[in-house]
Specification:
The complex is a heterodimer of chains A (442) and B (453). In chain A, helix 2 links the parallel strand 3 (60-64) and strand 4 (91-93). The longest helix of chain A has 20 residues, at 198-217. In chain A, 55% of the residues are buried. Chain A is α+β, with helices and mostly antiparallel strands and 442 residues long. Helices cover 35% and strands 16% of the residues of chain A. The two termini of chain A are 31 Å apart. Chain A has a domain at 183-219 and 299-441: Thiolase/Chalcone synthase (Peroxisomal Thiolase, Chain A, domain 1, 3-Layer(aba) Sandwich). Chain A contains 14 helices and twelve strands. The radius of gyration of chain A is 22 Å and the shape is globular. Chain B has 453 residues and is an alpha/beta fold. Chain B has two domains: 4-11 and 25-197, Rossmann fold; 211-445, Rossmann fold. Helices cover 39% and strands 16% of the residues of chain B. Chain B has helices spanning 4-8, 12-21, 52-64, 101-108, 133-152, 173-183, 226-237, 251-260, 275-287, 310-333, 347-351, 357-378, 395-398, 402-410, 420-430, and strands at residues 43-47, 69-70, 84-90, 114-125, 158-164, 194-197, 217-221, 241-246, 264-267, 292-295, 340-344, 383-389, 442-445. In chain B, the strands form two sheets. Chain B has a seven-stranded parallel sheet, sandwiched between helices. In chain B, strand 5, helix 6 (173-183) and strand 6 form a beta-alpha-beta unit. In chain B, helix 7 (226-237) crosses helix 15 and helix 9 (275-287) crosses helix 10. The longest helix of chain B is centred in the last third of the chain and has 24 residues, at 310-333. Chain B is globular, with a radius of gyration of 22 Å. The chains are: A alpha+beta (442), B alpha/beta (453). The interface between A and B is medium-sized, with 25 and 23 residues.
Chain lengths: 442, 453
Amino acid sequence: MATNQPPTAAPRDAYIVGGNRIPFSRAGKKYVNASNQEMFTAALEGLVARFGLQGERLGEVAGGAVLKHSRDFNLIRESVLGSSLSAQTPAYDVQQACATGLEAAIAVTNKIRLGQIESAIAGGTDTVSDAPIAVSERLRKALLEANHAKTLGARIRPFTRLKPADLAPASPSTSEPRTGLSMGEHQAITTAKWGIAREAQDEVALNSHHNLARAWDAGFFDDLVTPFRGLTRDDNLRGDTSLEKLSKLKPVFGLKLPEPAVPTMTAGNSTPLTDGASAVLFASREWADAHDLPVLARFVDAETAAVDFVHGHEGLLMAPVHAVPRLLARNGLALEDIDFFEIHEAFASTVLTTFAAWEDEEYCRTELGLDGAFGKVDRSRLNVNGSSLAAGHPFAATGGRIIATAAKLVAARAAETGRPARALISVCAAGGLGATAIVESA
Amino acid sequence: MADKYTQAVNTGFTRTLAKRLGLPRPSLLRRHTPGAPLTVGPVLVVSDDASVADADVIAKALLGWDLDVRRSAESTAGDEHFRWGAVVLVLTGAQTPESVSGAVLAAGSTLRRLAPNGRVVTVSRAPESGDAPAVAATRAGVEGFLRSVAKELRAGATGNAVQLTGGAEVDSASALAAVRFFLSAKSAYVDGQVLPVGPSGAAVDTAYWERPLEGKVAVVTGAARGIGAAIAKTLARDGATVVVVDVPPAGEALTAVANEVKGTALQLDVTAPDAGAKILEHATGRHGRLDIVVHNAGILRDKLLANMDAAKWDSVIAVNLASQLRIDEYLLGAGVEGLHIVSLASTSGIAGNKGQSNYAFSKSGVIGRTAATAPLVAALNGTINAVAPGFIETDMTRSIPFATREVARRLSSLLQGGQPVDVAEAIAFLASPAAAGVNGQVLRVCGQNLVGK
């Protein structure tokens, strides 16, 4: 593997003060009339209220949405302007598919570590319910041509070339532009390649629901979530689900894979399309102290990776498998040093293929450049308060959800044991991308 | 906003009609706006012969508040258009029933010319054990007198009594603060009430009144909407940094209140065993101190007792009463100094209400615990008091059936329901440093509701 330099001593550390999100809602339900801007503004407002940031000029707010209207070119800045923060708070949009939220956090924490800013909010929002709908490519060209035409005849002419099919709207999809395959179909190939069993996937889904439900009941989200539009809990959550119920669902991905592959991915062990938004407050220690705000955790370091899925060399969602060994090596850490694994559950099998790859000597040597198997993850440390299978996954909002949960988990663990606690965050993304980070108790 | 009937009898044709028909005509009550004069006109200060010195002290204090203060009504006798803003009747020194006649009649002679939203305030001493029978009779007499006068007043005018206890002097901070509160538009819906005021420090200086809660940190439970939200806004207006608390499901509305008052939101169920610890930790951790706790969180689960189930009974007791006891116990156990606690009781807790045996138990319980906690808080230089709202125009009372609601509204001397801000003003007063001499009391904000005391 490419040797990474040990993390250059940053001038100082960046800390996680706390987070806020709105409950996540399945597409087409409670937030059917909520825009990305409304949802992100709500997430910001809850964060402002929790930490008394009214009128505060923050260093910056960064975030984004994956499914974004072109009119939302300044989505985050517009959200800031609609919030109780000072209008003098700068903002910018980030987009890295499902890793948007985490990438935004990496960007702002690096600025804090460099001393360019003292405080920041990172987050994201996504709505499938209010997604932009485009016209077909041929209709779009005709409209543009007509717009530039000077005579009536010239204005009408482009439309005479259209066929009825060109009038159908082009809905957003999660298909990869280079392969035409949906994310689920891509993951089905990876799942089959690693031979991940249906039961193992259902078990990951079951744990996600049970863990998230337990965390809600214990009040874990009392200071992490603010209700929105009458929704007070993630409505995808099925606390009463069972292996039996999950096992009855029909597979939906990988149905056309050649033998001997058996379709295993169902609506139960795949993340549903979801609406929601999240935001996390970061600061330097000095800023937090000056504002009498206790900090939960340190945002230690991050690593992103990308894989060549286009030519089938690697699975679409396997980039974090490459990023994590580099990240841990740079920080002198091994898997055993991690107390909490916050692995985004795009699909239950994403988590399981990640683990299988790390346990595979041959793969780790040839693909990751390691001396042998990377190691085994203690499953009891995986997504202990649930993850995307239960909460849902509004693409850009997932990073913020995970960071805030991880920060609270390590803070509580450190308070309990008196020793530092660490969490590893891993988010896979479309385009063969992945972002990972280490969070450590402050 | 006044209710529709009150608006109708105060505007245009419907006003004339109501007048002709002799319909009850509730007034549009004057409420506090920053910068507006304290009273609607000149203030007459009268006293019996034995109370002249105290009346002088009060008159002097009123002059310091930029009021037009008169010690006699004579100069205005022939002026038909003259209107008094308020009458302060000082009877602190009265020793015999026969001695108050002159002062009482002098006050009475002004009432025909009392301006709309005028004020009558009596200042006297509470009957106390050890009083000679004649003295006790005189002092007790003032109470019945005041309550009757309040019922005679019209056009939004109110009558209230400041009753000095434990040797409190008229020039003390709390005696004057109580007089000022009753004179002001802040007590718009407080009528016919007798407020006992104990000893307190020296009178506050004039600059104090702008922002009496400046530098204070207040926690308000149940602050997401209605009366709780009004309390948060009023305390913030008076200078306090406010921590707004409500159950997590109410978080969206709570966020809006927190951001409006520039405070912080704490999503917390007050019935949680560690609620007191969380409140103290948040207030001191984020804002450096805790000065005021307003126990406003409350729920209704109405049922006739014959149909009551455990869930309805227990949840009301847990939220409305047990949570307050537990939080107070924690805060006092933690030794928080100078804490001003104010609880929401209810006229239901005083008079009882059909279908509300659980609610009335909890609110009556609040009154009992307020009295019992008073000496414990006093040991830490704090106070605990309760406010008992009557019919207040909120989402909760809007759900009452029309006819019942109309009757409930008109069953008071002011012939209308109060606004959430009326309750909030009373709480802001009781929570203020100048009210340090008021402890263990229940102040009704009910427009002198005909039900109860």
